[in-house]
Amino acid sequence: MKLQSILQGVVLVSVLLLTISVNAKNATRRRKCRCEKYLGAVNKAIDTKLKEFEEMFSKFLEPMSDNYKKESAKLLDINVKLGEINGNMTDSQEELRREKYNLRLVWEHMYYQEQSADSLNSNFKALDSILKNVSLLVDKLEKMTDVGESGLISGDTSAMKIATAATKAARKTTIKTTETTATKVESTTTLPSMKVDEPQYPRDCHDIYLKGGMQFLGDYYLMVKPTGATKPFKVLCKIFKNAGWTVIQRRMDGSVNFYRNWHDYKTGFGNQAGEFWLGNDNIYYLTNQGDMMLRVEMEEWSGRTNHANYDYFRIEDESDKYRLHVHGYHGIAGDSLTPHWMSHDGKQFSTMDNDNDDRYYDNCAKSYHGAWWFNTCYESHLNGRYYTNGTHNNYFVRDGIQWNTIHPHSSLKSVEMMIKPYDASKLPNEV
């Protein structure tokens, strides 16, 4: 209302000035007005009114301007706070997603522990029975040592039968009770020839799990012999999610140098109780006896954990430079093995002394201090240098342990790559 009154005053003054001006001009034309002194007084009065109006209008606008500035500052603060809230909500959603996954793991762990309690009690009883049988066997063997240096030259051969039965029982997952009868043979100067069956090794960690072994959550070290392998080799097995996983790579503390030549990556290196690479030949045998899944578990220096699952994982043999075949991503870490812009699928393995990458002018393995299925060069590289706290020596040369969808400029704290048969309790999409 105050502003409306001011505007009405401005209009009236303007009309008055216009009328006076027109009348003055007309009067001058007609008869040369002799009232100039009156016009001067009128002009002076109008100027005074205009100044008063200007001062009043300025006083009115000044607080409005201050209020506008204050409100603008408040709006700016509100926008900043809304941006922070939005960022916090995004972080909270990610944390909730991770906590949901961790709670699922805890629930499964508790479920398996409860399920395994009865089995553990029965196994303790079976072990007690085995110990008693072994004690009897030791007593018999001690008695037989008194016969002479020739060992089992004469006397009771029931101990030999007991030893054979105990060996077979140790290889089986179910315990069978057998009774042996003692027989006597004539003295002889040589032991009878015994045919020893070739040990039967499992094909991989899940094969052992299916046969009743390793039913408790945790890590195991066992010998396996995949289809096509010429000899058995030692592996690290992890039991979780209703399956036996065979670990093919682990990084955890930087104790092992992963900047190695072709032969080392072919045969494997490191310590399976710590950091290691299982060996490309062994990985080839494991992944070519049926469809295999890959799981990559990663930890950042902040303590945050991530995982990436691939429904299909296989490599070729050395004649094709251990070429990688992988697809079917799901997980929470992001896809850094098969992204559209720089996929590692279909790429050959490269080391410092055997360059098979797609970069024609350089060796990615040398440039990034490791070995991998490089493209030109990578979106993931889990065999790079180990950097404490995740900070590279050179910001522009990211030669650490990298999974770019987690962080393109920070090296990871720990990594485990593991495989299992595809049809073995397929993991759900844990996004």
UniProtKB/TrEMBL annotation:
Q: Which residues form the Fibrinogen C-terminal domain?
A: 196-423
- Residues making up the signal peptide according to the UniProt record: 1-24
InterPro entries per record: FIB_ANG-like, Fibrinogen-like_C, Fibrinogen_a/b/g_C_1, Fibrinogen_a/b/g_C_dom, Fibrinogen_CS
GO cellular component terms, A-Z:
extracellular region
Entry-linked SMART domains: FBG (SM00186)
> Where located?
Secreted
Which UniProt keywords are given for this protein, alphabetically ordered? Disulfide bond, Glycoprotein, Secreted, Signal
Q: Which PROSITE patterns match?
A: FIBRINOGEN_C_1, FIBRINOGEN_C_2
Q: What is this protein called?
A: Fibrinogen C-terminal domain-containing protein
